[in-house]
Amino acid sequence: MDESLQFNSSLQKVHNGMDDLILDGHNILDGLRTQRLTLKGTQKKILDIANMLGLSNTVMRLIEKRAFQDKYFMIGGMLLTCVVMFLVVQYLT
């Protein structure tokens, strides 16, 4: 009977821990969404200022294309980092 109570208590602690992790993840995602909206607004303002300064549409397209390409470099770097971390874990275990 005592073992069952300890097991139930442990399961309850794990359940509460998982709830906390999910809540933290949710809060992090909300923060990232807020940052994304802020950055989009900033990007729009920068593009408006650049248009006021007289930058050509060609230059504006090149800047946007560069940002698009940088996103793929970032994703590739993240994947490469994950693969390296996986290989290190596999090697050490």
TrEMBL record:
It is found in: Endoplasmic reticulum membrane; Golgi apparatus, cis-Golgi network membrane. The keyword Membrane applies. One of its GO terms (biological process) is protein transport. The keyword rRNA-binding does not apply. Keywords: Acetylation, Coiled coil, Endoplasmic reticulum, Golgi apparatus, Membrane, Protein transport, Transmembrane, Transmembrane helix, Transport. It is a single-pass type IV membrane protein. GO terms for cellular component: cytosol; endoplasmic reticulum membrane; Golgi apparatus; nucleoplasm. The chain crosses the membrane at residues 72-92. Signal peptide: none annotated. PANTHER family: GOLGI SNAP RECEPTOR COMPLEX MEMBER 2, VESICLE TRANSPORT V-SNARE PROTEIN VTI1-RELATED. Belongs to the GOSR2 family. Involved in transport of proteins from the cis/medial-Golgi to the trans-Golgi network. This is Golgi SNAP receptor complex member 2. It comes from Homo sapiens (Human). The gene is GOSR2.
